[in-house]
Amino acid sequence: MASAFENAKKQINDSAGFLSKEYPDKSRFKKAIELLKRPQRVLKKKISIRLDSGKTETFQAYRSQHNDARGPFKGGIRFHPNVSEDEIIAFSTWMSIKCAVVGIPYGGGKGGIIVDPSLLSESELERLCKKYAEFLTPYIGPWKDIPAPDVNTGEREMAWMLDSYEKKVGHHAPATFTGKPLELGGSQGRTEATGLGGFYVLASYSEVTRMIPVKTTIAVQGFGNVGYWFAKFATGVGYKAVAISDSSGGIYDSNGLNVEKLSQLKEKYGSFNKIPKTKDHELITNNELLALKVDVLVPAALENAIHERNVKDIKAKVILEMANGPTTPEADAILSSNEVDILPDVLCNAGGVTVSYFEWVQNLNGYSWTKEKVIKELKKIMDSSFEEIYQVVQQKKVSYRKAAYILAIKRIVNAMMLRGRL
Ligand code: NAD
What is the pLDDT of residue 3? Predict the structure, then answer.
């Protein structure tokens, strides 16, 4: 399987072909595309912390700053044993695309540490977060690079990192991190933002394709923050979620699952495979979930969930990508040739970074918005972004992913040209 960054570069190349005729100066355009295929800066450091036992342990840390032609770098920080430099660079590239797709004034960034945080105590984690923020301090800030949470990091980690950064610079600067606790300048509505944004995409797609919610079946892979909120909003207006899974397996009910009830069962039993089978629902594997004959399949767990080997089993008519990079380019090509519509991650899960942007706007103004205002503004951005992509799909007869990339790359390339970077 190609690496994540190889995939990202291939996606840029594929869409660049469609755009080149719009740029009379071919060599300038080609140079812009070459620049988009590498990050502007990759920061790396081995960070040592004192463990509670008194010993010292060292962790490899990264931050990739992909392209800041449209605004400061923006992107999450991931704590995971599988973090690699290649993956961090790929995610920072996708963040540049995502911010441009929804038209928010940022470039892409991404950070990560190779660590299994479940093996560290709370105080060890705090020391790791503070040291990491100290290392990043010269390179981040409200107008430079604005980190946020990602896999295995959340409000708590952002609060520690903010404190470490502010100590170092000597003043308050809450707009340096987003995804903070409300008490430290976090935004209302951030928790559900990604799932809600994906739901708005589903609603817009349903409208243009005349898909009726109560007649539409959905399968959701992943029941974390994103999968839970997406399923909750979708079933709230009548879409029928017939299957939902976590990493242990899935629950299937042809009559549609009650998301709140499922959440309580997950809380009670810990994982889906421990929930007792009843006459209402059966237990299925994650592979069985992906192969269900549903209208909409929603990968909301991990990257590369749909790949060369399982793509032949997919029977869904639409794939709504809530996870980052859940479909490999090989699987994407096969699904597209089978006329499956893939609503791409760079649009579907952009609700999270959009509300992060609102958090930054509120922090810069020293003001806090109501949840109603956050939701209203999020809907505006998600609806207009879908509409712009849909227009390109119609006009150029391309896939939704290609349309999103065409729009995004054009916006970034134009910003680079206006700055005279080429
Ligand atoms: P999470 O950790 O809250 O939840 C992940 C869920 O996926 C869990 O239910 C877990 O059990 C399940 N899972 C893990 N491995 C699985 C497997 N092999 N098969 C099936 N299910 C599996 O994470 P999240 O915040 O919900 O993020 C999910 C995805 O969405 C990730 O790709 C993330 O990068 C992306 N994303 C998240 C946000 C956000 O705001 N949280 C924003 C943009 C993109």
Answer: 86
CA 350 to ligand 1: nearest atom? 43
Distances (CA, A) of 44 to 41, 60, 235: 10, 7, 43
Q: What is the pLDDT of residue 279?
A: 79
Which parts of the chain sit beneath pLDDT 50?
none
- Cβ neighbours for 336, distance < 8 A, ≥ 6 positions apart: 342, 399
Residue 358 Cβ contacting ligand 1 at under 6 Å = no
Q: What is the pLDDT of residues 64-106, one digit of tens each?
A: 999 999 999 999 999 999 999 999 999 999 999 999 999 999 9
pLDDT number for residue 20 = 92
Query: HSE of 331 in the Cβ direction (CA atoms, 13 Å)?
Result: 21
Confidence (pLDDT) at 234: 98
Question: Are 306 and 290 in contact, with CB atoms under 8 Å apart?
Answer: yes
Strand order in the sheet with 56-67: 41-50, 56-67, 107-114, 73-80, 145-149
197 with 237, same domain: the answer is: yes
Measure 324 CA to ligand 1 centroid, in angstroms.
9
Q: Are residues 226 and 119 in the same domain?
A: no
> Is 93 inside any structural domain?
yes
The CA-CA-CA angle for residues 411, 327, 259, to 5°, reads: 100
Does the Cβ of 194 fall within 6 Å of ligand 1? yes
Q: Does the residue 181 lie in any domain?
A: no
Amino acid 277: pLDDT: 83
Q: Which of 142, 173, 204 is the C-terminal boundary of a domain? A: 173
Structural domain count of the chain: 2
- Please tell me if the CB atom of residue 191 comes closer than 6 angstroms to any atom of ligand 1: no
**Is residue 297 located within the same domain as residue 268?**
yes
Q: Catalytic residues, which ones? A: 110
Do 157 and 255 have their domain in common? Answer: no
Q: What is the pLDDT of residue 7?
A: 87
Structure tokens, 201:
């995409």
Give this prediction's pTM: 0.96
Query: Is residue 152 included in any domain, yes or no?
Result: yes
